[in-house]
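[agent] plan:
  1. take the single chain provided in the ticket
  2. run structure prediction with default settings
  3. attach structure tokens to the ticket
  4. add a short note for the reviewer (M.T.)
[agent] executing step 1
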Amino acid sequence: MPIRFHLDEHISPALADALRHRGIDVTTTADAGLAGAEDREHLAFALRDGRVVVTRDVDFLRLHAEGLPHAGIAYWHTRSRGLGEVVRRLVSMHAALTPEEFQNRVNNL
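[agent] step 2 finished; step 3 output follows
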């Protein structure tokens, strides 16, 4: 089974559109009914559904450091990459890694 993604509320829906256009399964905060939800709720939803959270929110890195279990976090530093580069990196992760390899792991975009 390939990696699936969940975008937190800080990520543009344009990223979801780009990934879906490439056949990648992705949910957004709105899709999941998580608008206004706490970060822990996003991680819990993503863990239950086997989705890697894509975020720009450093609070997810803190939750990871606390040992909160998750299906993976792909952290997009706000000054590091443009949308096109992030799409390429997520597509590469989707092709190269299994959900098990991403479990409880953080990858920087």
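[agent] step 4 note for reviewer: Strands lie at 4-7, 26-27, 51-55, 73-75, 106-108.
[agent] ticket updated
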